Amino acid sequence: MTFAKSWAHSSSANLGPGFDVLAVAHAVFQDEVVVELLSEGALKVELKDGDPKTNTATYAAMKMLEDLGHRVHVRVEVKKGIPQGLGLGSSGASAAASVAALNELLGMGLSEDELVKYAMLGEIASSGSPHPDNVAASVIGGWVAVRSSTPLKVVKLPVVGDYRLALIVPDFRMEGKTKKAREMVPRQISMTDHVEAVRRVSSLLLGLSLGDRELVREGMNDEIVEKSRLPLFPFYPEVRKAALLREAVGVCVSGAGPSILILADQRTDLEGLKADVMKMEGLKAQFLVTVVGGGVKVEVRK
Ligand code: HSE
What we know:
Elements: E1 2-13, E2 22-40, E3 44-47, H1 56-68, E4 72-79, H2 90-105, H3 112-119, H4 122-127, H5 133-140, E5 143-148, E6 153-156, E7 164-170, H6 177-183, H7 191-210, H8 213-219, H9 225-228, H10 236-245, E8 250-253, E9 260-264, H11 270-279, E10 285-290, E11 297-301
Parallel strand pairs: 3-4
Antiparallel strand pairs: 1-2, 1-11, 2-4, 2-5, 5-6, 7-9, 7-10, 8-9
């Protein structure tokens, strides 16, 4: 039996002002995907225990094989380790693992940009639109930015500093959350808001690359996308305030939420913050502490 096994990490997209552009992978969760090559001659993508048309891993695999003209019959198994529907890049990680496994299995030799391009198509199956930020983090690992959409190009950010990542993961899920959250984002913004957002992204990127916590703190701030989605995570302002009082370097909504990402260094009192969060009314959540995760890993067995 010829198959490839792959593992891709969860991630937090946006990082405040970088909607659909910035993301970071976390080491805490990963999905495992097994792609088995059954035969050659005709294109067919099967999903073990599910509908391949609605699963991000198989949707991305199908689009990639179609586009590149590979006539193979494969069976995909997705073993979820990443909680779904909580803004942790779960759908993106499955798609990233799936395209990376196929790339190795069929010896395609695709670049990281091409893997991201195909993996992001999987997001259509889960949220209706192909956004590349989560898949970029899952494919490449570390801190990433999308630098061009046509053609799709991503870049790994040079980050100075050993940050710990705390994730506040609320105990609730909403069907079709990311699609709904994307519909809540304004279609147009004022030039004033645009200028402020560019200031923040500049400050965040410079702060990360210089290891300057004040710049990161100033930059991890968003008044456009997070604000428009606040009804989905009404506890966010209180968590944010508490985190900054406990000397978090930065705080943001993780992707489309409802999870929250806290960037921490030696000055941050994560124990104190955890106690604050556990006491908050109306918020039942897990408080997880992790580090930045690596990129997708693949093993082929022939
Ligand atoms: N950038 C995307 C969004 C990430 O915020 O909609 C979704 O996880």
